[in-house]
Every structure is written in structure tokens, then in C-alpha cells.
Amino acid sequence: MTEENLGGHDEVVVKKKKKKSRGDDSEVVLNINSIMDIMTILLVFLMVSITSDPLSIQQNEKLKLAKSTADYPPENSIPITVSAAQILVDRKPVLKVECTTQTGQQCQDQDYGEKTNSYRIDKFHKKDQDDNQFLIQTLFKKLEEVVKMKKEEDEAMQQEFKGIATVVVHSEIPFRILQEIVYTAGMAELSSLRFAVLKTSAR
Amino acid sequence: MAGKRGKRGKDAQIELNLVPIMALLCVLIPVLLAAFNFFEIKVQAMSVPRMATGKSKAKKTKKQKPLNLTLYIDQSFIKVSVHKENMDRVGLSRGPLVIPKRDFSVGGDGASYYGNEKQEVNEYDYPALHEALVKIKKATEKMDFKKEPRTINITAKSTIPWRIIARTIDASRVRLDKDNFGTESNALEVYSQAEPLKQDRMDEKGQPMENESGEPIQEDKPLFDAVVFASAR
């Protein structure tokens, strides 16, 4: 006989019996309302934080930001990411960064954390396929496309095109590649650059 | 029977089954936590150098030459230079100032750039660089520039990594509460934890800006904060 089949009087009797024997074998029902509240608040907080971050950078061995005391907030602009393995524009891979270890071997996944690695852009991607050139042709073409789209967007929204790009650079990327990125971005009308850094209190 | 059923319909409390929602939240929260950045990301503004071809057509006058402050970062030193006609006036009469790397004892404090572990490092002399830049800044205050010079050109040897350049920019961006960090081995640690000087933020008309409660808005006192990535071909 289950509790549902009992009449109204019998139900009361069973409840009384249950009350008496609660200390021995009563079922403890977990109240999940409070934990639901906590989780809902946490969920909303995380979703707001993630959607309000214009860069949403995930750091790993191939992309570690340099530390700085700079205190300017990132703004919505064209993102150029230079990791230890590749260059991305608007989160889409454009070209590979050549990484070689101290012994001259091509970097494997486990080598990317080493500070002794050297990085360069293959001359195949540069203007006239000349290693001395600063213009990275492959990157330039992609940036031109993105800038054109951004200009059309700004025009439709009756805004002025500002030519700002946010450069997210791996901390070990050498000055030579930075020069090439800056030069190429400048040629693609992105003359104002913001370099992403990890905020620290000690300089 | 019908009456009993009707009564039951009125009194029965329907408890919402929250278990599937809980299951969904338990999946969503770890995914979002993995995507969440627990560190603060900021940006350092930088400009592309303007290029000019040929000689300037402007008439040569005896006007104040631009400061043209340039830092060159090499493997073992940082070189500070200004326009040759301003060298004497900023105290660089012997030529560009070369600040070599030196040994420092660092770390041993949670707030340190180098972490908790005490160690000896051979590092660029950022404290001396900051001191030199403050001296140049003070000298420019006595010179007749139309606008306060805040531009600094930064160039480096092609192999110098971005983290060194970012740290050099840090040394030149804001003025710190100390102008001298001494020659002790802990100078880098003292410099590293120095606080920036503050000043009132001014609006376009040169009036101090105030927040909603009428208090003046403070900002870091700039040193040379307009960074230009120069290329040395």
C-alpha cells in the first residue's frame, strides 16, 4: 500500500507515525533552492564578464602576455594576435610564425615555453619574398580586407573610421617581428595600435 | 471519489523539479569558468612613425628643435639620446647616455615582479633609466617648447623580446614618487614597487575635472607616455 492510495484520515496517521520515527529512518530531502540561487548569480556574473571583454584572451604556452603597469582599458578594435605559432586577424589564422629552438630544430608543442627560442616570419610571406622587407604581404592583404569591412560598417553607422588595432603579442616575440607588424598595420591604415599587456602592480 | 479528487487538486503543492536545471548549470559553470580570465588585461597605446621623403621644405629658423628623445635597447644596455642640438641642455653633453645591465638582488616578496623567491639577476637598469628620464623631463621644463614634450621613440635590437620593451615603456611612461633609487643591489626592487605620482586631471579648457561627488579626478603624472615604435634600418 503506497501513501497515495491512503484516504485522508489514514494519511494523517501515517504522517504522525513518520513524525515519531523521524529520528530513525526519515528521508532527508535536500533543499536545492539556495544552491540554485548561488549558481544562477554565478552564471549571470560569468556571462556578463565574458561578453563584456572585447579581447577574451586565453593564455597558454604559445600566448603569454607581457606584464606591465599600463592602465588603459582595451577598446573595441581590430584584433591582431601574434602567438608563438601563428598570426591571427579577427581570430582567424593568417600566417605561421617560424619558431626554432636553441639547437636550430623546428619547435614542437613542448618547446614553446622556452625563452631561448627564436621567432621569425618566413620570407615567402614578405614583399618581393625578400627577408629584409618589413611588409608582410599575406598579413597586409588580410588587414586591407578587414579595414575595408570596418570602414563600411562605420559608414553605415555614421561613425568616423579611427584606424585602431589591438595587438595581442606573445611576450617572447622579438622586436623585428613587432616592427614588421607595426609597419604592415600602418600601411593598411591602422596607425594607432594598442598592445595588450597583463596588468601588474610591480613594474 | 470525484469530490476527493477535486479537493486534492486544490491543496496539492506541485514542486518544480529543479534537478535538470541544476544539471545544466553544473555543466555551464565549469565551461564559463574555463573561458573566464582571472587576470586583468590592459593596453599600452603606441603610434606608428610618420614617414617623410626628401628634405623638409620648411625654412630653417632658430626655433627650438624637437626633443626627439629616443631609447635604443641592446642585448646588454639601453641608450638614451635626444636631438643633437638639445644634448647640452638636457645634460647629455658627453653624448648619448648608455645605461648597462647590472646585477640586482630581487624577489622575496609577494608583491615583487620576480615573485616570492629571492634571487640574483643581471637585468637592465630600469631605476637608472627612470632617473635619467626624470632629469631630461625636468630640463625640458626650462626649455621653450610650445607643447610639453611627451613623445618617446623606442627602438631595439631585432632579437629583443616584447616583454623587455614593455618593461622599458613602463619605466618611461609615468613619473614615480622617488627620483633616486640608489646604487644598492635592491634598487630594482625599490623601483619596482614605487608608486606613480598623481596629479589632477584637466579638461580641454585646462580646468581640473571633478567626479560626481565634487572631488578632483586624479591621474598618474606622465613622464614620456606617447610611445612611437621607431625603426632603425
Provide the descriptors you would attach to this structure in a database record.
heterodimer; A: 203 residues; alpha/beta; 2 domains; 6-stranded mixed β-sheet; 8 strands; B: 233 residues; 5-stranded mixed β-sheet; two-stranded antiparallel sheet; 5 helices; 20% strand
List the helices and strands and how they pair.
The complex is a heterodimer of chains A (about 200) and B (about 230).
Chain A: H1 8-20, H2 22-25, H3 33-52, E1 67-68, E2 78-82, E3 86-89, E4 92-96, E5 98-100, E6 118-120, H4 137-156, E7 164-169, H5 175-187, E8 192-199
Parallel strand pairs in A: 1-8, 2-7, 7-8
Antiparallel strand pairs in A: 2-3, 3-4, 5-6
Helix pairs in contact in A: 4-5
Chain B: H1 2-11, H2 19-35, E1 41-47, E2 70-73, E3 77-81, E4 97-100, E5 102-106, E6 119-123, H3 126-141, E7 151-156, H4 162-173, H5 187-192, E8 198-200, E9 218-220, E10 226-229
Parallel strand pairs in B: 2-7, 7-10
Antiparallel strand pairs in B: 2-3, 3-4, 5-6, 8-9
Helix pairs in contact in B: 3-4
3D structure, described in words:
The complex is a heterodimer of chains A (203) and B (233). By secondary structure, chain A is of the alpha/beta class. Chain A folds into 2 domains: 1-51; 67-199, no CATH class. Helix content of chain A is 34%, strand content 18%. In chain A, a hairpin with a 2-residue loop joins strand 3 (86-89) and strand 4 (92-96). Chain B has 5 helices and 10 strands; from the N terminus they run ααββββββαβααβββ. Chain B has helices at 2-11, 19-35, 126-141, 162-173, 187-192; strands at 41-47, 70-73, 77-81, 97-100, 102-106, 119-123, 151-156, 198-200, 218-220, 226-229. Chain B starts with a helix and ends with a strand. Chains A and B meet through helix 3, strand 1, helix 5 and strand 8 of A and helix 2, strand 1 and helix 4 of B. Strand 8 of chain A pairs antiparallel with strand 1 (41-47) of chain B, so a sheet runs across the interface.
